[in-house]
Amino acid sequence: MAVVRDFHQQNYRSRIGPSIFMNINGELNFVHIKLAKSRREEWDKDILMIRNTWNSIYSNVPFTYKFYDETIANLYKQDRNSAKLISVATCTTIFISCLGLLGLATLTAFQRSKEIGVRKVLGANVAAIIQLLSVDFLVLMLIAVTIASPIAWWATNTWLQDFAYHITIQWWMFAVAGSGAVLIALLTVGVQAVKATHANPVNSLPDE
Q1: Is the pTM of this model over 0.85?
Q2: I need a labelling partner for 121 at 20 to 30 A (CA). Which of 128, 133, 139, 147 fits?
Q3: What share of the chain is helix, strand, coil (3-state, %, to 5)?
């Protein structure tokens, strides 16, 4: 008889339960065999030897085997597929959002081209014009982050409740995500803002 530390036999959605392992004659369904990692290239030979030994003892029982790491991987197959789907959806959403921001920034720069031209003539520097075009988008992004953060917290926390063992959602996670979103937005808008600052004021003020 031996006692070992608790360990998982199922995925992390289930709590660790009590287990007992017994060797009952006549009821041996499967055995666990550890293959040496240092001899990985010889595993095929080892499996063949195990198969032959099994067939010589249990000739009326088909020999089947599987690796334990594959069994563990199957426990989380659905979660990995969901993670891949969410990653693709997130990247697609960010890309489309950046295209929308770029289009909106282009429209804003075009509508305010005369204002930008006047400011440049009056001595406004590049940083001032970039700030002029970016501040409105920054306010919109901060509002979006403020609205999205509680929703994201609720959705994430609800998903984590499916797991018996899970992390605790911290405020800094949303701060990092929000800062990243704002940074991406500012970089996207900044590209168009820089183009606007390099435009010739003469072209935007033909009738002034």
Answers
A1: no
A2: 139
A3: 65, 0, 35
